[in-house]
Amino acid sequence: MNLTSFFIYCIVVTFTPGPSNIVILTSVGQVGPRKTMEYVWGATVAFGLLLAASALLNHVLAEVLPGILQVMQIVGSVYMIYLAYQVYKMGSTETGSKQVTGFLNGLIMQFVNPKVVLFTFTVIPSYVLPYYDSTMSTFLFVIIITIIGFLAYSSWAVFGSIFRTLLNRHQKAVSILMALFLLYSAIMVSGII
């Protein structure tokens, strides 16, 4: 197993912008880092659960994956459009919408986030299972990847905290931009373009 390639893949996929990272960045400016961390914990738990599911159900999912991907694309696109609307509302009123944050939304977002689903269902079979077949080693890699995911989500919360004043000063513009990124993600995931 090429550990360098494995870590690069994990870091690039988890740290690059995606629906969850955009929601985290936007939420920090709106509700603060503590409330946003609830979302981060929900996203992390779901991320770990998806990794564990990938490790345990690899053979079954390989046969069913095309059907799952189509459903995830539709559900994920609809949920991302909903999140785009919620993020847009954050910048359109003084009080804004605080429904995007929270543990449950973080948890749900990961299960319908095609970026996360595709990553979790490819990283274990591609990097771990060809080289390690014991349950303990697979579990260890699930833990390692989950920690990398938590660090990625937390870094977006820290970034949002550092630039909170700037983000709040330009709240409407930032919310519109983040909503457009989410909308773009939804369109790309749906396969329309």
Radius of gyration: 17 Å
Instruction: List the uncertain runs.
Output: 93-97
Structural class: mainly alpha
What is the strand tally? 0
Mean model confidence by pLDDT: 79
Shape: globular
Whole-number tally of structural domains: 1
Strand content: under 5%
Instruction: Count helical runs.
Output: 9
Task: Spell out the helices and strands N to C.
Answer: HHHHHHHHH
Largest sheet: none
* Terminus-to-terminus distance: 36 Å
Helix content: over 70%
What does this entry show, briefly?
The protein is an all-alpha fold and 193 residues long. The chain contains nine helices and no strands.
Write the layout of secondary structure elements.
Layout (H helix, E strand, L loop, with lengths): L2 H13 L3 H13 L1 H24 L1 H35 L10 H10 L1 H15 L6 H28 L1 H6 L1 H20 L3
GO biological process, one term: cysteine export across plasma membrane
GO cellular component, one term: plasma membrane
Keywords: Cell membrane, Membrane, Transmembrane, Transmembrane helix
